[in-house]
Hints:
The structure holds two protein chains of two kinds.
Chain A: E1 27-33, H1 40-52, E2 71-75, H2 80-89, E3 100-104, H3 109-112, H4 118-129, E4 140-144, H5 147-152, H6 157-170, E5 173-179, H7 182-185, H8 196-208, E6 213-218, E7 230-236, E8 252-258, E9 264-268
Chain B: H1 3-16, E1 24-29, H2 36-49, E2 55-61, E3 75-78, H3 84-93, E4 100-106, H4 116-123, E5 129-136, H5 145-149, H6 157-164, E6 167-173, H7 180-185, E7 204-212, E8 218-226, E9 231-234, H8 245-249, H9 261-269, H10 273-279
Parallel strand pairs in B: 1-5, 1-6, 2-3, 2-4, 4-5
Antiparallel strand pairs in B: 6-7, 7-8, 8-9
Amino acid sequence: xxxxxxxxxxxxxxxxxxxxxxxxxxxxxxxxxxxxxxxxxxxxxxxxxxxxxxxxxxxxxxxxxxxxxxxxxxxxxxxxxxxxxxxxxxxxxxxxxxxxxxxxxxxxxxxxxxxxxxxxxxxxxxxxxxxxxxxxxxxxxxxxxxxxxxxxxxxxxxxxxxxxxxxxxxxxxxxxxxxxxxxxxxxxxxxxxxxxxxxxxxxxxxxxxxxxxxxxxxxxxxxxxxxxxxxxxxxxxxxxxxxxxxxxxxxxxxxxxxxxxxxxxxxxx
Amino acid sequence: xxxxxxxxxxxxxxxxxxxxxxxxxxxxxxxxxxxxxxxxxxxxxxxxxxxxxxxxxxxxxxxxxxxxxxxxxxxxxxxxxxxxxxxxxxxxxxxxxxxxxxxxxxxxxxxxxxxxxxxxxxxxxxxxxxxxxxxxxxxxxxxxxxxxxxxxxxxxxxxxxxxxxxxxxxxxxxxxxxxxxxxxxxxxxxxxxxxxxxxxxxxxxxxxxxxxxxxxxxxxxxxxxxxxxxxxxxxxxxxxxxxxxxxxxxxxxxxxxxxxxxxxxxxxxxxxxxxxxxxxxxxxxxxxxxxxxxxxxxxxxxxxxxxx
Lengths: 269, 308
């Protein structure tokens, strides 16, 4: 018996990133993951979809024409090579696309940021991030590793959310890629507001009250399997997304398999 | 519909359309069911029950960056970068004393615990102001420095707000087949956080209305709210008998009205006459069979015999 390959859709009408609706509404998405379910493969497909509205996972969505939207990728945990290599395998040369911009906050992060001085983080965003984002043509922004600032400096969750709010207003869609390992935000045994776990838990819950869409990558609850890497869950966020033509979020759960050659298969659960 | 459910539906309509005097309406929500849909519903009911321009609608946001379509007639102010004093000044400057004012604050979690009572008190200065605010109960509250200095007597934000609020609207997901209790308990665990399907329903929500009267009386009614057709259905609790008849009889009199367990067993063992009669059933094919016993008076005359 062979498993049927399924397609990736986040919205009704076979849409992944709903480009048309983004002219009217803002979309805020979290991509949460834990150890063992790295989201790199998904992010690669989403960058491709953000740029060209294509997705190689789906039949009939592989022909690339013009660039549909500018994309800004901000990373505190990876440099540009990670995604350039990943996208190259999908046939996209990020270096040759002027509408794609990678803001590398990973290299030299702690020479620019002083853990005891939250002001240095404000300087970092004011000099390295906000000036590089076009205010006339709002791009789709991806940001990963933001929790690193929360866990390694004295910044509070509310201060960090302030930067997210600014990124939200500068973008037409914002994807926050963040880990959700319980060790990072387990507060059941801690009762002090200053603990990093508390700050991260507080940050996550406050973010969840702002999102339209949540994508979660988790390992199988039953243990490891050779033919399944993990589960991919798509669920509505707290803020209803008002898309064009009655566009709705498709709440779904997939099983996914990332093979050694980085090819991905999805199966409905 | 009983008179109680009728009056609860009327009360809800009055509260949601701002017809009921209430200086602070507190909306309690969670990550499983946010308040956004309810706020749009409240705005819809206000718009349909008040003539245009008779309610001054102001939205002060610490959280959301733009107005949702359901709240498009609000004036939006982003106050996330302002200090509390500046927020109070801004709100005061936007109040129009000649009309009803609706001050929507999203969300009150961003106001520090120590400033909370002052913040609310300074806004509610006249009778025509109503604060409508959301409090996220999913966010855990921790003992802060101020509370420690007060030797633990200063209340939490949740306690303060639920005490001050004249109306509390607690939102729960409308998911009859899921175990909310389990989800609340496992909220902090990774498996449910960020990957809960079937929540944040935009069509139906469950709402618990708590309304406090000036007399001190507080009423609590649960509802299911249909957000598509804007109708509310009071949830009537099924009367489940918690006590048996035996329990009700206890302690009513100085003598015993109940039966003990031993008496019950003996009572069950009594053989009643019709049990024996049923053993012969079927033998006479439905005819009436009379069996004489030793003391029966036998009469040879048939009383039903035709005399002619």
